[in-house]
Amino acid sequence: MRAKIYHFLIVVLVFGASPLQAAETLTWQQCVSEARSAHPDLYSALAVIQQAEADRRITAGALFPQLNVTLSSQERTGTAKASRSSSSFSYSLAAQQLLFDGNKTSKQIRSALESINAAKYNYRSVSADLRFALRSAYTELLKAQDFVALAREIAERRRNNVRLINLRYQGGREHIGSFRQAEADLAQANFEVSQSERALLVAQVKLASALGRDQHNPIRVVGAFTVPLSSLGKPDMAILARNNPQFQQLDAQSKAARYDLDAARSVFLPQIYLTSTIGRSATDRLPMDAVDWNSGLTVSVPIYEGGSGRARVSRAMAVVSEHNAAQKSGYLQLYDTLEESWKSFQDARQLVTVRKKFLDAAMERSSIANAQYSNGLVTFNEWVIIENNLVSAKKEFLNAGADLLIAEAKWIQAKGGGVDGEEK
Q1: pLDDT per residue over 131-159, tens digit each?
Q2: What's the sign of the alpha-carbon dihedral 306, 312, 315, 317?
Q3: pTM for the whole thing?
Q4: Domains contained in the chain, number
Q5: What is the pLDDT of residues 362-409, one digit of tens each?
Q6: Residue 117 is assigned to a structural domain of this protein
Q7: Which domain does 113 fall in, by range?
Q8: What 3-state class would DSSP assign to 222?
Q9: Residue 76 backbone zone (phi > 0: left; psi -120 to 50: alpha; other: beta)
Q10: Strands 24-26 and 219-221: what pairing?
Q11: Is 250 a member of any domain?
């Protein structure tokens, strides 16, 4: 009999454990490390860099010798008057080396190098966006966990209040309206418990997606709603805006466009190649000929292309103007974003201090009001208002802490901070 009881207790402990206890526990550093190594957005941005590097190698190939081997075999048949046939065979090796093209290829290579830089800055921008999304999901889960605990604490407090009001009602010291109000407050608290538990599941799913996971298993995070102390001085927004990877990407794209314009203009200059060919040929009636070898210079001078050259130059000039305007517009937007995010970060930091003072005051008032209500020194309406203020103060303090982490994450994103090298 005792063995059966032990077995029953083990089953209850194993299968009755809460989801939070069975969930995987992650720190912020572990979240960053996993997202950095597994998130598909980073792999996509890395593939863009690889494509840009391949384009540069393709463009640079024009500076190296071009070798071609040609094999030819022909069968010649007779005419209507003669039925003779013969065959011929030849092979040759041709080499071509670019000597001068008005620096067109070198400009295209420099443009490709700037495209690589732009792709690298794009990777940093994607990393910054990923960090913000990850930090937001992490904060929401941290908040959801604390809110579940807070909702259960409030529900237990409301439950005790119902018992207290019921005793006073049974003793004739409180009317039925007060008891019904206490029951309604308890029902609201129970609803918020269920609501917070559902929100916890959603927050776990969002964090798993932010980590780049295909499987969405229960996750628990550890941390606090605090940020490291920083200098009170306002940073130089102009420097931060120009150091932002989004601006640097626009700058690299603008430089690449200017190199493309130079390359388009060089189309009007002559192209000079060194050429060389070596080969042999033979027929079925004659032995293999001696080796033929020749070399020389090929000069190509564009004279008239139907206006396509000038059109390409005009298009390249328009592209330069477009990127210059985009660069200036991007700088202004980044500057505004930095100002706004800095202001929001400072507001959130200060608001946490204010909400903490309100919470301390509400806890003191609640402690005093509970004693006064038990002794009949305050009315039910006065006591309920103080109780509700305490509940609101706890919720607002929790929200303020979560908003602080989100504001800090937005400020870091505005500066271009990503998951690479993340220490916090």
Answers
A1: 999 999 999 999 999 999 999 999 999 99
A2: negative
A3: 0.85
A4: 1
A5: 999 999 999 999 888 999 999 999 999 999 999 999 999 999 999 999
A6: yes
A7: 24-74+87-415
A8: coil
A9: beta
A10: parallel
A11: yes
